[in-house]
Amino acid sequence: MTLKIEIDDGGGAGTGGVPSYEQVRVQIAEQARGGALPVGYKLPTVRGLAQDLGLAPNTVAKAYRQLEADGVIETRGRNGTFVAAAGDAVAREASGAAQAFAGRVRRLGLSEEDALAAARDALRAAYGDSG
After folding, report:
1. Which range (50-59, 68-77, 82-91, 114-123) has the least confidence?
2. Residue 76 and residue 121 in one domain
3. pLDDT value of residue 34
4. Interhelix angle for 112-127 vs 86-108, to 10°?
5. 5 belongs to a structural domain
6. pLDDT of residue 70
7. Is 6 a domain residue?
8. Any domain includes 117
9. Given CB 3.0 to 4.6 Å as the disulfide criterion, which of 63, 76, 85, 90 pairs with 21?
């Protein structure tokens, strides 16, 4: 399994002038989510990938930053950058949202019962379930 990225510099059909960093981001995300790049796969360094693709290091760095913010990849300091477990990122984000909610309803003075009722109502509205 290897990372495969093709950059269309605007001369080809299909990109519609998509910036290079976005092409890198989308292709890595699709390969990670599609299983072509397994969890734990070590990505090339920013400089290495930039050189391979003929891009500026800042272009690849921007793509990596966005992928990390989306939970697709994770940087482990000097050990490198790896494909993250999607479930872990989702669980972390959900936990953070729940903690923020809990802190907010506590500051508002809601009881646990009222807070849970508010959360259930919001989930029903979000999922389109009226019952």
Report:
1. 82-91
2. no
3. 85
4. 130
5. no
6. 87
7. no
8. yes
9. 63
Domain extent at residue 24: 20-84
Q: Is residue 11 part of a domain?
A: no
- The yes-or-no verdict on residue 107 having pLDDT over 90 is yes
**How far is Cα 82 from Cα 9, in angstroms, rounded to an integer?**
26
Q: Look up residue 62 and give its amino acid.
A: K
Measured CA to CA, the distance from residue 110 to residue 121 in angstroms comes to: 15
Q: Is the pTM of this model over 0.70?
A: no
The total number of structural domains that make up the chain: 2
For residue 25, the model assigns a pLDDT of 96
CA 70 – CA 67 distance, rounded (Å)? 5
Structure tokens at 92: 């972390």
Q: Which residues contact 5 (CB under 8 A, 6 or more apart)?
A: 23, 24, 27, 28, 49, 53
93 and 58 fall within a common domain: no
